[in-house]
From TrEMBL:
NCBIfam families: vanZ_1 (NF037970). It comes from the Bacteria. It comes from Nitrospira japonica. The chain crosses the membrane at residues 12-32, 52-76, 88-108, 114-133. Residues 35-133 form the VanZ-like domain. This is VanZ-like domain-containing protein. Keywords: Membrane, Transmembrane, Transmembrane helix. It holds the Pfam family VanZ. Coiled coil: none annotated.
Amino acid sequence: MFARRIHPDLLFAAAWTIVILMVGTLPLKNFVGHSHWEYIKWLPTAQDLRSPAYLLDIASDLIGNTLLFFPLGYFLSRLLNSSKPVRHMLLAGTVGALLSLSIEFYQVYCHSRFPSVFDVVTNVTGTLLGVLIGRSRTKTAMMERNRVLTPTPHNHTLIP
C-alpha cells in the first residue's frame, strides 16, 4: 500500500488557521453565552474619525489583521492548482472571509471583544495580498525553471 504524502503547505495553512483562531478567540473565559450586538462597530462615526486614539486603533487593526491573514493567503495560493488567478482569489477570499466572519460572530458573545466589519475587510484584504504574493513568487519560480540556458556569443549575436 502506498502512503500518501501530505503537502507541507497544507500543514502550514492548517497550523496558521489555528493561530488565527487562537488570536481571534482567546482567552476563552471572555465567552459569556449571550450576545452583545450593540458592541458591533458597523461604521465609524464622524466623532470616531476625529479621535486620534480611534485612528491609532484603526491603524493598528489594519496592520495587525492584514499581517495575521497574509500567510493564510500565501499558503492557500501554493495549494490551489487552478491556472486562473481569479479562481485563486475567489477561493482564498472565501476561506478568509468565512474564517473572519466566524471569529467576529464568536466575539459578539464575548465581553471584552468588539467585533467590527472593518476587521472582516482587513482580514480578507490580508488573505488576498497573500494570494497575490504567492502567485507572483510561483510564476517567477516557474519562469526561472523554464528558462533555457544557452550560451551567448561574446559579440551578442544570435546568428550561428
